[in-house]
Specification:
The chain is of the alpha+beta class and 883 residues long. Among the domains are: 38-132, Roll (Nuclear Transport Factor 2, Chain: A), CATH 3.10.450; 148-216; 418-543, Orthogonal Bundle (Neutral Protease, domain 2); 553-642, Sandwich (Immunoglobulin-like); 647-811, Jelly Rolls. The protein is 19% helix and 32% strand. The chain contains 13 helices and 50 strands. The strands form 11 sheets. Strands 1, 2, 3, 4, 5, 6, 7, 8, 9 and 10 form a 10-stranded mixed β-sheet that branches. Strands 35, 37, 38, 41, 46 and 49 form a 6-stranded antiparallel β-sheet that branches. Strands 25, 26, 27, 30 and 31 form a 5-stranded antiparallel β-sheet that branches. Strand 7 (167-180) and strand 8 form a beta hairpin. Helix 1 crosses helix 4 (312-334). The radius of gyration is 41 Å and the shape is elongated.
């Protein structure tokens, strides 16, 4: 609903040129000041007037008596005799007696008064006065006047100069009193008719022949033009939206709709409207052929609705006209200095060949047709707003101070321009035929931070500045109120567009725009709000805000540490609440709160059976209403934790090169070593534990190769003695949405995990910490053996950090007691991994020393111990497997 209201307000506020009859006007042709009519309630309450509703004569008598008694209040300077009855009518249980005000028998133009009678439980009563009388009407009455021929000539010349119409003036012989800016004057009335149109006026002329004012005599009907369009996009909620500044014809006469979509025509009968797709603000150019046309009937006071929603190419034209008009209106609000450019007619090209895109040249804007993947971009309001935002940015830049060549900055500013119109941080709803957004500039629980989140895609990097401005918008509205807060964010947004050439310069540009005394050394009125918003997104050098650690896990206990600086000029945010939402499997989440002890917040997961895998997330709430979520990975938003101590069947710590088998189409992609964290790939700065990790391209810039098909294989692992087996390992994975790049895990060649794929292709998997990943691989064990494969397949566009693995283990929840498997089970005295007698441990796992035999040479270290050398079929050396 917020977006609907924003759209309606902007449509109503868009500047326009109304075609409407001229009312009483001055000699300059502008309406004269008129006193608004007012309802006067009766002092002392309603007055009884028996029979007044049924009988007009009684009503007139009572009205005249009332007027005579109250004349000093209703029309100071007048007498009751100055008012003559011109109306006396009944409608239902009401009767109204209307008076015209005169002066010495001359009509006072626009001065009238009405007395209203009504019928209630106590009978007929005089209960209201509609007072439009004028006070102190005392004009000087001239003793001479110009000849009518002279009056006609001056009136016709005045009309030609003021209306560009040729007219013919005829004296009526009536003299009236007219209120002008210089007081009341006596005037002659001339009937003036256009020789080329139906227009007709009464023109009031002073005694010396000077035209004073005019009043249209033509009855005009009005209607409203509306185009049916999506409130945000074609497949969402739709409405009939008033169309401002559209060039149309009404009964074959050209006119332009007003800002609110209204238009007028002469007469009181129905009219025929030919709607248009151009006007003083916007011109639609259809790249798929001729412009859409229509012919619409309209009754006086009603709306003419143009609905072409069933035809994509036509609907794109109507929708783009609506959205473009809104975008220009918003630009006038954000940066009034752009008026000279915005006053021009701008071209919007629709239905161009191509798909899933749109672009701005800095002036005109272009939109592509639909495809099976994407909606016609001219039918998506946010896309029109975004692209016009590029044009606004381009024209706002101050040469030498700002710039529009940084695509990252430009995309973010355009996203904010769109969100600022819709009042919704979810941008691009409808692009993929549903209400899901293309991007979200204010994701729940985390912020995009410079330079950590700098991406090869400028739309993604742009979320840093769009998110910053949205956060600042919220802070300013909260601190200053809605109206002043919106006004100030528009001012700062304009300053950022004007004086920023890249992301790091946006903070200074914001301060300059906020400054009110040409002295940044003493701060700015909203410095603390600006510093907080920009600082949280990494755009303020040396910014120190409140930080919260990732959860530390000890059994079931979770601990987070909060660091709130107390020595900063601006107060830091305070943590007010930390909660944990946990679940088992796909069950309904439960929530508990952590307890603060100083800067440490702690709490425990519930006591559940050993081996239960719990998924959980943490939400931190601050005193300004913002939140922070852990983990900060939208593609994998839940931590995992296995309760209890599972048995370790096999582990690889990567403290040395494991020499795992790998396959690749471009050489050895998988490497062992310490991660670099030096490039934009998103690799960690260190191993989770020990002296190394195993992953894709560990040694160079950390980024995997383009068009890669690669995999790494664990050794074959003997898990035949266990009936519940899990893969557990530490993961730091950064990879594009699975639409483009696929990271997967297989158990014995059956895929058991893959990175997520979003419809818009924007759900990159980006770990920002070492994550425990648990997968139940029990169903995939074959003949007691297990091999795990990590795979990565990429496209040719952007490359991220890929896989980083550490502390890979196969763990077991339950053990099958079996003599000869190398594990010492309950009831066994020994287990040397075979079923031979005479080697110190019998085939029944009896220790021959304890039983009087020759002694056991292979005791395995106590109950539950694991002989890793027997659990692994080792693969020596680095080997390649064909694809």
């Amino acid at each position: 609903m917020r977006a609907v209201l924003a759209l309606a307000v902007l449509l109503a506020s868009a500047p326009g040129y109304a075609f409407a009859p001229r009312k009483l006007g001055s000699a300059a042709g502008k309406p004269a000041t008129q006193t608004a009519g007012k309802i006067t309630r009766i002092a002392g309450g309603p007055i009884d007037a028996p029979g007044a509703v049924d009988d007009g004569a009684i009503a007139e008598r009572e009205a005249r008596a009332f007027l005579a008694a109250r004349i000093a209040q209703l029309a100071p300077g007048a007498t009751a005799a100055d008012f003559i009855v011109i109306g006396n009518s009944r409608d239902g249980e009401l009767r109204t007696v209307g008076f015209r005000q005169t002066y010495r028998g001359m009509r006072v133009v626009g001065a009238q008064l009405a007395v209203v009678f009504g019928r209630g439980p106590r009978g007929d009563r005089l209960f209201a006065v509609l007072d439009g009388a004028k006070p102190n009407v005392t004009p000087a009455v001239p003793t001479t006047r110009a000849a009518y021929s002279a009056m006609r000539g001056r009136v016709e010349a005045w009309m030609l100069a003021d209306t560009a119409l040729t007219t013919a003036a005829t004296p009526t012989g009536e003299r009236v009193v007219v209120e002008t800016s210089g007081g009341y004057r006596v005037a002659d009335v001339l009937d003036v008719a256009s020789t080329t149109s139906p227009d007709r006026w009464d023109v009031y002329v002073a005694a010396d022949g000077t035209p004073l004012a005019r009043d249209s005599k033509i009855m005009f009907a009005t209607g409203t033009l509306k185009y049916n369009a999506g409130l945000r996009h074609a497949n969402g909620a739709r409405d009939d939206l008033a169309v401002g500044n559209a060039a149309i014809t009404v009964n074959s006469l050209a006119t332009t709709t007003a800002a609110n979509g209204s238009f007028s025509w002469t007469g009181s009968s129905a009219a025929t409207v030919t709607p248009g797709l151009s006007g003083p603000d916007v011109r639609i150019i259809n790249q798929a052929g001729a412009l859409a046309t229509g012919s619409l009937p309209v009754q006086p006071g009603q709306s003419a609705v143009w609905n072409l929603s069933s035809d994509e190419l036509s609907d794109a034209q109507l929708s783009t006209f609506i959205y473009a008009t809104v975008a220009k209106a918003q630009a006038r609000i954000v940066n009034p200095a752009l008026a000279p450019w915005l006053d021009q007619q701008l071209d919007f090209f629709v239905n161009e060949s191509g798909e899933c895109n749109a672009y701005s040249t800095g002036n005109d804007v272009h939109f592509f047709r639909s495809s099976t993947t994407c909606q016609n971009t001219g039918r998506v309001g946010d896309i029109v707003f975004h692209e016009f935002g590029h044009s606004v940015h381009s024209h706002t830049v101050i040469p030498g101070a700002g710039g529009d060549s940084d695509g990252h900055l430009g995309e973010g500013l355009a996203d904010f321009f769109a969100a600022n119109i819709t009042d919704d941080p979810a941008v691009g709803r409808g692009m993929y035929y549903d209400d899901s957004p293309l991007r979200h500039i204010d994701p729940s629980g985390y912020e995009r931070v410079y330079p950590i989140d700098v991406d090869f895609d400028p739309h993604i990097t742009g979320l840093i500045i769009s998110g910053t401005l949205w956060d600042l918008r919220k802070l300013l509205v909260a601190g200053l109120g809605a109206a002043q807060g919106r006004q100030q964010i528009d001012r700062i947004f304009t300053g950022v567009m004007a004086r920023s050439s890249d992301l790091p310069k946006t903070f200074e540009a914001a301060l300059i725009a906020d400054d009110d005394d040409a002295d940044l050394d003493n701060g700015t009125p909203n410095y603390c709000a600006i510093e907080r918003a920009f600082g949280r997104h990494g755009l303020v050098d040396g910014y120190r805000g409140t930080t919260v650690s990732t959860p530390a896990v000890d059994g079931r206990k979770l601990t987070l540490t909060v660091d709130t600086p107390t020595d900063t000029a601006c107060p830091a945010m305070t943590v007010t609440r930390i909660s944990v939402a946990w679940q088992v499997g796909d069950g309904v989440p439960s929530v508990f709160e952590l307890v603060a002890e100083g800067s440490t917040w702690t709490g425990e997961l519930p006591a559940l059976p050993d081996g239960t895998v719990v998924s959980y997330s943490v939400e931190v709430e601050y005193d300004d209403g913002t939140t922070q979520a852990f983990p900060t990975n939208a593609a994998d938003p839940l931590y995992q934790l296995m309760l209890g101590e599972p048995k370790r069947v096999w582990c690889e710590s990567f403290d040395a090169d494991p020499n795992w088998e790998q396959s690749s189409n471009v050489g050895f992609e998988w490497q062992w070593g310490m991660p670099q964290a030096s490039g934009p790939g998103g690799d960690p700065a260190s191993a989770y534990s020990g002296g190394g990790v195993f992953g894709t391209d560990v040694s160079s810039d950390g980024r995997y190769r383009a068009n890669l098909v690669s995999a790494a294989y664990s050794p074959l692992i003997d898990v035949g003695s266990f009936d519940q087996v899990h893969l557990q390992y530490r993961r730091w994975l950064t990879v594009e949405d699975a639409t483009y790049d696929q990271a997967s895990i297989s158990a014995n060649d059956t895929e058991v995990w893959r990175n997520k794929q979003a419809q818009n292709g924007g759900l990159d998997h980006v770990d920002r910490e070492w994550r425990l990943h648990d997968i139940d691989v029990t169903p995939y064990v074959r003949d007691g053996m297990l091999q795990i494969k990590w795979s990565l397949q990429t496209d040719g566009s952007k490359q991220l950090g890929g896989w980083n693995l550490d502390d890979v283990c196969i763990v077991a929840l339950t053990k099958i007691a079996r003599c000869g498997d190398g594990y010492l089970d309950v009831g066994e005295q020994c287990d040397d991994g075979n079923l031979l007698d005479d080697d110190g441990c019998t085939r029944e796992c009896v220790d021959m020393i304890e039983s009087g035999g020759g002694g056991c040479c292979s005791a395995s270290g106590g109950e539950g111990s694991i002989l890793l050398t027997l659990g692994v079929i080792a693969i020596a050396g680095r080997r390649r497997r064909p694809l």
